[in-house]
Amino acid sequence: MNRRLIWLLQRWAVLIVALAVWELAARRGNSVYFPPPTKIFEQGWELWFGGPAAHLFLTDTWFKDILPSVGRVIGGWLLAAFIGITLGTALGRSRTGMDYVGPLFAFIRAIPPPTLIPLFLLLFGIDTAMKLATIVFGAVWPILLNTVDGVRSVDSVQTETARSFRTPRHRWIAMVVLPAALPKIFAGLRLSLSIAVLLMVISEFVGHTSGLGNQLIFAQHSFDFTIMWAWIVLLGILGYVLNSLFLVLERRVLSWQPSRHTERSLQVGG
């Protein structure tokens, strides 16, 4: 128990010190743009849980803003994962596929997703479909390209062995190709998750009456900087939680890798 407490203190020491410095500097400077962290957390608690007297109950903000935004992040990310892994596997197994679509992908990837929001507004309206399209467009590229790279890195011995045993193509892809490409696929999935959170916020800046991005820009326009910082803190917490959950999933799925066993033994030994 003591070792775990020391480990937690070491891990969070920098954040604790940074918050303490921020608190002291904000109280001394008394700037309206940079309120103290204690005031930010107090406002956030009242906003999300209705104050100390109602801490066991969620406010309407959760159902109107927070949960819909989380749903858009997860939904857009899952759609991007499905498209990226499916298309990336097909292109990775093709000898000439990327030669034809590579220049097109390079051009499309260079377009910043926020600049396509006006187009998506025309195509899908201001509802959730526009937000999902923005998220998918930006989040699909790390998954797709990492999948192509991972599928192409399958060992030639495994390929020849599958051919010699006349393994059906679909079974070979499911049992040999994809498991071998999983480390790189998960690297793309992790990167795309942070992109999905970012694009969720940006897409909610435009033409919407709910969501974390909408509330953030509304607080900024209302010059309520404490509430604005509270939403920023919540977005940081959301990103951290999603990333932590993803890492748990990644460790479970890739636990068969020798490097994972070595890493785990080092952590236990340390």
Shape: globular
Q: What Rg do the Cα atoms give?
A: 23 Å
Strand content: under 5%
The class by helix and strand makeup works out as mainly alpha
Identify the CATH homologous superfamily of the largest domain.
MetI-like
How many H/I helical runs?
11
Main sheet summary: none
How far apart are the termini? 14 Å
Helix content: over 70%
Top-tier CATH class of the largest domain: Mainly Alpha
CATH topology of the largest domain: MetI-like fold
Rounded mean pLDDT is 85
Q: Tell me the series of helices and strands, N- to C-terminal.
A: HHHHHHHHHHH
Which segments are poorly predicted (pLDDT under 50) over 5 or more consecutive residues? 261-270
CATH architecture of the largest domain: Orthogonal Bundle
Total domain count: 2
Compact overview of the structure:
With 270 residues, this protein is mainly α.
Plain-language structure description:
- By secondary structure, the chain is mainly α.
- It has 2 domains: 1-30; 37-269, MetI-like (MetI-like fold).
- 80% of the residues lie in helices and 0% in strands.
- It has 11 helices and no strands.
- The chain has helices at residues 2-29, 37-49, 60-93, 97-109, 117-124, 128-152, 156-164, 169-203, 212-221, 225-253, 258-269.
- Helix 3 (60-93) packs antiparallel against helix 8 (169-203) and helix 9 runs antiparallel to helix 10.
- The longest helix has 35 residues, at 169-203.
- The protein is globular.
